Amino acid sequence: MKSSIHRDTLGAILELATAPHESAMLVVGEPGSGKSRLLASVEPIPGIEIFRVRINPAEAGFPLSGLSAFVASFQTPAAAALSSELLIPGEADAQLAARAAELLALIRDFTPETTLLLIDDLDLMDLPSQTVFAMVAARLGGTGLRLVGTVCAEPPVGPLASLPRITLDRLTFAESMLLATELLGPQSDEALRRMLASSSSGSPSEIARNARLLTSRHLGNAAPVALPFRASRAPSTRTSQEPDDQHLLLAMLSCSYLSSQDPIRQSGDPIRGALEELLSAGTVIRDGRYLRISDSALRSHLYWSIDAGTRAEFHARAARSEDAPGGDPGLAAWHRSWADAGSLSSDELLASAAEFGRRGLIWQSVELAERALALALDATGSPEALLEVAEALYLQGELSYAARYARLGQRRPGSIATVTKLATLRSGIEFMSTHQLLTTDLDDWVGPRGASGRAEDLARLLGMSALSHAERWEVDAAREALARGRHLLESATPESIELHELSALLLSALEGDPGPSTRMFERLSRHGWTEETSARALSVLGRSLTFIDRYGDARRVLRTVVGLEPPPDPIVLQTARYYLAENEILAGNQFEAMAIIESLTGSGTEQVHRRPLQLLTAWYWQARGDRARADAAIELCNRSFATSDHPALAARLVADQGRFALMEGRFDDAIAFLHRAGAIGSAFRNPSLLRSQVDLIEAYVLSGRLREAVIQFREFRARARPFHTRWTVLATARAEALLTPGEASIAVFEQAAGLWQPGDSQFEQGRTLLSFADRLVSLGHGREGADQYLAARMIFTQLGAIPWARKADAVRLGTHAPSVNPLLATLAPDERLVAELVQQGKRNKEIAAELFVSLRTVEVRLTRTYNKLGAKSRSHLIALLSGTGTVLSDGAASGMV
């Protein structure tokens, strides 16, 4: 069942359909909640026949007509005959029990062994049919039939009241976005899709209805959208014929998304009383200093049910109220645009939209912007005004809306300065959203066309470009952008100069020079964080400290940004939290990293750093050990960023896959992934990729491919030379210990473990101890190895690296014997562990569960063990390990499977 919405309810239907016992269930959902769509989304289930019935409400006056349709759905001659017979008038009350018995007999005799019957609008059946249905639903044992019916409301009384039910909740915003994407297409403007999702209150029918209102001009971004979306009249709305106070207040509030509460509270007692009742019922909610109708779809229906004259009167009254003390000038402008359109210019409305955007009132900002574009009283909104709106929404992290208004601004003629600023903003939006750069805009405005532009604007564009290239690990491109902008800095503003300085800071860290980042951190530590140090500067400093492996210092800086009061702009705050998540991953603090990722990806519709967050999500599920979700997240990454467009992200994705494959003992997979990471990242000078090379060395060693491990180690030392960090020291020592053969490796491992100092990566220390334990056990030092496994496990558990802790614990459990079987000493650690569990009498499935690996992984390890030891079978392997069997010669063993 692959529907993008109502996944939990679809899962419940699948569980009912495949349960060992027959049962029935009601799905309760309000009109427009997507009940019909839900049943249509139930996909074929192997071994189960699925039938669907749609109840016709026009037949509700005919007794047993609903039951007749129910019976006819089985599509057999006997069912057709009974369906016709049910339509013959008779004594309905006397018929019911008999009809239920006939129906049960029919089901037993003529339905397939396992059948799922889906009935839409079950509560629209006539009452006698509902009675028979309820009787049958309670007697399904032995029929093979599972029943699912949808109803519009909880049935407090009546035949259906006793049936189990689940409620079809409104769509989440993420689900609403998925549905909007299905309706408009994935290539449609994301801003339009967000408008649909934001105005639907989670109702699929509202999303579908509003989508039908969009024309080809809307979809081509050639026309503004009329907001709120136009809805049909609500029959129950009574605003023109002496409405009650609550309804009158709702009608007034529907005229804008937000309304200032002070003018309303200063109204007469009846209105104040109506407001308190609506607040208590949750129909209206307080939102800061404002009031708003909680249900966007209700607001739309209320607004468009008011006749045009009354709407104009309400707008005029609201404009006067918002102009009064306690009101909002921006809302006054909104209402005047409806009551007296000629009194305002588009730019005045756009200025109000920008102000709402800066205050984080996004939907009010969007409604005002679309209204300004619709009026176009002075031909068009100026590019300067659209730029102001786009910049405000960008700083709020609303990238899709910011992109919409920036694009519209670029379509209008404007000064070179404005056009350059729009190009800069568009490039920033594109990078923060997709991790890509609009290089054509950069070339256009820094090339010949940009020669006459203001130096400040060009300097800012080049500084932003350099910082973005650095984030993509494109050091040469970043250096080029800084060089092109250097001569412009003499007349640039402090903000543009800071951009260039921060780009240079990040580049130095990427190239292995810790000096600039260290000096800036120490200066700020001595003198404290000052107001002169922007939140953006602190974020980039934290990022640079991560690249030079000073994770504790980076954590301190980035947590400072996250805890600033007042908070920085949302886009800066989100960036700092994203940087902090990556810092904790590299530091090995997986508990912290997972908590941050959960907070960053909670909505499912993230706009800022969308591609990197997809990468973090894939890491998250791998770290949790959830293979199914990890595979789905990895597949999404593969679809979202191709290697040619996002080489840095692609390299990190396969490097993560390689590390987790190494942890799980899938050495061949690990080598393949890590080789690919090296191939993709060979063009980058980034210390993060050195980790994958150390992992590759370990994978080669554990696979017995020492020659290739040595080649990788030599290359690693050459690449690591420019990066003088504590991590490179620890990683080099661990790699040397891994490559040292025999008993001599014990002293090298002890030396590597002894290098660790407070402030160094505890995760790296755990990796060293785990490798040390593997080596000790392979050399026959079982008890000493057990101690190292325990130490590694304690470190991993403290960090929240649960799969690594499980690995250390699982291996440790097999190492308490006073001596190690010489045959086991010839096996790799992962093979040895499987062999020991086989010796304990455990089956493959039990071994897979204990080691937290797949059944296939156990089978592969066992096959390698058979080949190495010459075992003919499982029992022969046990005999060999017990000392009662005979080891085959290499020649005899070579043919074993």
Total strands: the figure is 8
Give the CATH level 1 class of one domain: Alpha Beta
CATH superfamily heading of one domain: P-loop containing nucleotide triphosphate hydrolases
Main sheet? 5 strands, parallel
Helix proportion: 55-70%
Mean pLDDT: 84
- What is the radius of gyration computed over CA atoms, rounded to a whole number of angstroms? 34 Å
Q: Record the strand order, biggest sheet.
A: 2-3-4-1-5
User: How many distinct helices?
Assistant: 47
CATH architecture of one domain: 3-Layer(aba) Sandwich
Report the CATH topology name of one domain. Answer: Rossmann fold
Alpha-beta content class: mainly alpha
Shape: flat
> How far is it from the N-terminal to the C-terminal residue, by CA?
38 Å
Structure write-up:
By secondary structure, this protein is mostly helical. The protein is built from 47 helices and 8 strands. The relative contact order is 0.04.
Structural descriptors:
5-stranded parallel sheet; 897 residues; single chain; Serine Threonine Protein Phosphatase 5, Tetratricopeptide repeat; mainly alpha; Rossmann fold
What's the topology here?
Blueprint: H1 7-18, E1 24-28, H2 35-40, E2 49-54, H3 65-72, H4 77-86, H5 92-110, E3 115-120, H6 127-137, E4 145-151, E5 165-167, H7 173-184, H8 190-198, H9 204-213, H10 216-219, H11 245-253, E6 259-260, H12 261-265, H13 269-281, E7 284-287, E8 290-293, H14 296-305, H15 308-323, H16 329-339, H17 346-358, H18 362-375, H19 383-395, H20 399-410, H21 416-434, H22 439-446, H23 455-471, H24 475-485, H25 494-510, H26 515-527, H27 535-547, H28 551-562, H29 570-587, H30 590-600, H31 610-624, H32 627-640, H33 647-663, H34 667-681, H35 690-702, H36 706-720, H37 726-739, H38 744-754, H39 762-778, H40 782-799, H41 802-812, H42 822-825, H43 829-839, H44 844-851, H45 855-869, H46 874-882, H47 890-893
Parallel strand pairs: 1-4, 1-5, 2-3, 3-4
Antiparallel strand pairs: 6-8, 7-8
Helix pairs in contact: 3-4, 3-6, 4-5, 5-6, 7-8, 7-9, 15-16, 16-17, 17-18, 17-19, 19-20, 19-21, 20-21, 21-22, 21-23, 23-24, 23-25, 24-25, 25-27, 27-28, 27-29, 28-29, 29-30, 30-31, 31-32, 31-33, 33-34, 33-35, 34-35, 35-36, 35-37, 36-37, 37-38, 37-39, 38-39, 39-40, 40-41, 43-45, 43-46, 44-45
